[in-house]
Write a structure and sequence with these properties.
By secondary structure, the protein is an all-beta fold. The protein contains no helices and 63 strands. A hairpin with a 3-residue loop joins strand 39 and strand 40.
């Protein structure tokens, strides 16, 4: 989703069936018109002239409203913000064939109310829909024609409707989304487990979610995060759970690893290209990454891909000797699998406890691998691109258990991790600085629950970290905190409320590894009995503005900033030294421009400011100069010029003018004027002046001074070789 700022109202129609009969749409179509005003007001109408006005969301303070549009994805959005308040309202025209999908999401400093006020001439409230239209009041109160606002899919958030004021009020938490979406259902209680293995990402215009439906590894996709495709099956197993597979998107390809988890079964690997229609084009047939051996089981799978495209798989090996953490790697990066020499590699010795492996890709084919089990410290090793380093102790606190390993992300070659601490159930954070080692632990959130398993994502644009968890401080809620420059938020943001359906467990979360399209997605599960819901929500981090029309900058522009704009730009701010805008069409400068500035402008320039010396301007069309021009200035002008200023000219100045010139100035001695068309001289002309009128004709004035001071003037008309005296 790429939103572009709009500065004028948007009118957009949605084609819908004219009628529905027993759930079936008619072949005849009509339209639902939306008018989005820049102040946040929306007006709905149809061909029957029914109208409904929706006022901007009101959350108790005066806010700034901005209008955006994504033409390709057919999304119109409002941003309402002030200080720590930020709310987005999305209108998605392609999310449903019969209606426009509305999603409201935001972050507020505290839990509060959001109000939507409606205006309509005739209206009815039917269940969770406010209708404006024409009604049959005689018998059935049936809606004959109308437009409406439907909030029936809002779950887990209380609301109230005031009939007198026609106002709908939602009671929201500080962080909220009026409408996380259900991706699908599953009979597996661990459809998305465990939190350290990724299950979702964004690629090629779609959100992708992978999970177990109980018998199959499946995936679904969505262009808007709301409406999801049918499930596509990748692999079928009996009693299949989410901790038996892992997926990874490396920016170019999807990679997955999967095993049944049964004795003697192999680990399989496959790579594919994600297509914009939600299909996958596989690079090769499914490969065997680890051969099946009788008496051996492979569970708790995770997969990553290093910087050169080579896949790595981490897993727990269970056999007669116990359990151990193992890593394997392919020496092929083309979608096939050839196990590299020295792999599989045993990260740990055997233990009697269940354990898990986490892999973190770094730069230049480096990978960091670590492992843990119940009530022990975390241990890891660095693969430097060619060999393993020595084992490192990562934490000073014991891990709660292997299903609470949390998540890890990289920032270059540095590693960030979160995990659940044993006994106290604090969410702990620690960072490994490349070349230095592991630092001190910090508490993200204290005293959560014994089942909480945090997940971690990074905003690659600014390296901010986002930690998500469930169940505390409020049961059946999902929270997050942000870390900026090594400092975590003091208070958590209460983001998602699933009190109605209830969370399946607090350790079923999985999130994006990094931001995609200015959002971080989260997958989790609801309901406490089969069929379980696999749910998805995304946290909007900001807007990436790709601007195709216009840009207005009303903020101070700092030094060494560059803006590339395809049409026009208005700069109403103070421009500092050494800043160069590149602009294709037009620019208006109403500010002081300091010296040593260069502007390259293709069409039009208006200068209403003081222009200092040593400034060269190349202008292709026209220029108006109303400023004082200092000496040693050179202007090259292609069409016309008007000089109405006092021009103080030092000797040996030549003016070349192609059309017309009016001179009302005092022209000093030894001046030569070359004119192609005509000239009007109203000045005092001093001795020995020659006026060249055209090609072979000139007027010559000769002034003779005698010793006594007598002045005699003679004027000659010179035509070729012929001179005719006109006076004297």
């Amino acid at each position: 989703m790429v939103l572009e700022r709009r500065y004028s109202a948007i009118t957009k129609d949605k084609q819908i069936p004219r009628s529905m009969f027993m759930g079936m749409p008619s072949a005849e179509m009509t339209f639902l018109r939306h008018f989005f005003d820049v102040d946040g007001t929306i007006k709905l109408s149809n061909e029957s002239l029914d109208e409904l006005t929706i006022k901007p969301p009101d959350f108790g303070i005066s806010v700034t409203v901005e209008l955006y549009e994504d033409v390709e994805e057919e999304i119109v959005a409002y941003r309402l913000f002030k200080g720590s308040y930020e709310v987005w309202v999305y209108f998605k025209f392609n999310a449903d064939p019969y209606r426009v999908k509305i999603t409201i999401t935001g972050q507020l400093p505290t839990a509060r109310q959001i109000k939507l006020a409606f205006q309509a001439l005739e209206h009815k409230l039917k269940e969770k829909t406010f209708w404006s239209g024409t009604f049959d009041d005689t018998f059935t109160d049936e809606l004959r024609s109308g437009v409406g606002f439907d909030w029936s899919d809002v779950k887990g958030i209380s609301f109230a409707f005031d009939e007198d004021t026609k106002t709908l009020t939602f009671n929201v938490d500080a962080g909220f989304t009026l409408d996380p979406s259900t991706v699908g259902t599953s009979t597996a209680a661990h459809a998305t487990a465990w939190s350290h293995s990724r299950k979702c990402f964004y690629a090629n215009g779609r959100y992708w979610v992978f999970y177990s439906d109980g018998s199959n590894l499946v995936y679904r996709t969505s262009t808007d995060g709301i409406t999801w495709s049918d499930a596509t099956t990748i692999k079928t197993f009996a009693n299949f759970q989410g901790y038996r597979f892992g997926v990874w998107f490396d920016g170019a390809y999807l990679h997955y690893c999967v095993s049944s988890g049964l004795s003697g079964d192999a680990i399989f690997y496959r790579r594919g290209t994600l297509n914009s229609d939600g299909t996958i084009t596989w690079s090769a047939d499914e490969q065997t990454a680890v051969s099946g051996v009788s008496g051996k089981q492979y569970v708790n799978l995770i997969i990553v891909v290093d910087s050169a495209g080579y896949p790595w798989i981490g897993y727990e090996l269970i056999d007669a000797s116990g359990k151990r953490a193992v890593v394997t790697k392919s020496s092929a990066n083309d979608g096939t699998w050839t196990t590299q020499t020295g792999f599989p590699y045993n990260l740990s010795a055997y233990t009697t406890n269940y354990l898990a492996v986490v892999l973190v890709p770094l730069t230049n084919q480096k990978v960091y691998a670590y492992y843990g089990w119940v009530n022990v410290l975390l241990y890891g090793r660095l693969w430097d691109g060619s060999a393993w380093g020595s084992q490192e102790t990562m934490t000073s606190s014991n891990l709660k258990d292997c299903d609470h390993m949390g998540g890890a992300v990289n920032e270059g070659d540095d590693v960030h991790i979160v995990f659940l601490k044993a006994s106290t159930y604090d969410i702990r954070y620690v960072k490994r600085t490349y070349g230095t080692g592991w630092g001190s632990e910090a508490t993200v959130q204290s005293a959560t629950t014994a089942t909480t398993s945090p997940v971690l994502a990074i905003n690659m644009g600014n390296n901010d970290l986002y930690c998500f968890w469930a169940g505390s401080p409020t049961i059946h809620h999902i929270f997050y905190k942000k870390c900026v420059g090594g400092t975590w938020d003091t208070d958590p943001t209460d983001w998602i409320n699933e009190t109605t359906d209830q969370l399946t467990a607090n350790d079923r979360l999985s999130c994006f590894y990094r931001d995609y399209g200015s959002a971080i997605g989260l997958v989790y599960m609801t309901k406490t009995a089969s069929p379980y819901n696999v749910r998805f929500a995304y946290l909007t981090l900001g807007v990436v503005k790709e601007i195709a029309d216009s840009l207005s900058l009303s903020d101070a522009l700092l030094c060494n900033k560059a803006f590339a704009v395809s049409d026009s730009v208005g700069l109403a701010d103070s421009l500092l030294k050494d800043w160069m805008p590149q602009i294709n069409d037009a620019i208006g400068l109403s500010d002081a421009i300091l010296r040593d500035k260069t502007f390259q402008i293709l069409d039009l320039l208006s200068l209403a400011d003081a222009v200092y010396s040593i400034l060269t301007m190349e202008i292709t069309d026209s220029i108006s100069l109303i400023d004082s021009l200092l000496r040693d200035k050179h202007f090259s002008i292609s069409d016309s010029t008007s000089l109405s200023e006092l021009v103080t000219v030092i000797t040996e100045i030549t003016k070349a003018v192609t059309d017309t010139i009016g001179l009302s100035e005092q022209v000093s001695a030894n001046k030569a004027l070359l004119l192609m068309d005509q000239i009007q001289l109203t000045e005092n002309i001093y001795v020995n002046k020659i006026l060249t009128i055209s090609d072979q004709m000139a007027l010559v004035e000769i002034v003779e001074k005698t010793v006594s001071g007598l002045v005699k003037t003679k004027i000659f008309l010179v035509m070729g070789d012929l001179a005719i005296q006109l006076s004297g």
